[in-house]
């Protein structure tokens, strides 16, 4: 009987972290993509919606918009929580004209679960 208790405790301790990561998946949606006529220096204000398992709004995510210019330089724009649970607002300003890849880091609370969701590339025009 004495050996059973430590074994049960060990099983419980190993199971808890697994249960914590069982919901280790989020989806993101954007309120809009940059307008086709967006120019350098003009803001693109976008709402990011982060849902755990594609269903439950996440209040503890730390999302950010990530764009990469043609030379490969990465620009990050952190989003701020709005009054709607699971919704975050980001203000993105493209620094130069060109074709940018567009991604959204979901900011999942467990870093090993967080990922970048990719979207269609955007072409930003000169001023």
Summed up:
This protein is mainly β. Helices cover 14% and strands 42% of the residues.
Quickly list its features.
mainly beta; Immunoglobulin-like; 5-stranded antiparallel sheet; 4-stranded antiparallel sheet; 1 helix; 9 strands; 14% helix; 42% strand
Overview of this structure, please?
This protein is mostly beta strands and 127 residues long. The protein has a single domain (24-124), classed as Sandwich (Immunoglobulin-like). It contains 1 helix and 9 strands; from the N terminus they run αβββββββββ. The strands form 2 sheets. Strands 1, 2, 3, 6 and 7 form a 5-stranded antiparallel β-sheet that branches. A 4-stranded antiparallel β-sheet has the order 5-4-8-9, with no helix packed on it. The longest helix has 18 residues, at 4-21. It is elongated, with a radius of gyration of 20 Å.
Q: What's the helix and strand layout?
A:
Layout: H1 4-21, E1 26-30, E2 43-52, E3 56-57, E4 64-68, E5 74-78, E6 80-81, E7 87-93, E8 98-105, E9 116-124
Antiparallel strand pairs: 1-2, 2-3, 2-7, 4-5, 4-8, 6-7, 8-9
- When the domains are counted, the total is 1
* Beta-strand percent range: 35-45%
The CATH architecture comes to Sandwich
Order of helices and strands: HEEEEEEEEE
CATH top level assignment:
Mainly Beta
Mean pLDDT: 88
Distance between the termini: 77 Å
Helix content: 10-25%
Given helix and strand content, the structural type is mainly beta
CATH topology title = Immunoglobulin-like
Q: How many strand units? A: 9
Q: Which stretches are poorly predicted, pLDDT < 50 over at least 5 residues?
A: 7-20
Q: What sort of overall outline do the alpha carbons produce when their principal axes are compared? A: elongated
**From the alpha-carbon coordinates, what is the Rg to the nearest angstrom?**
20 Å
Count up the helices.
1
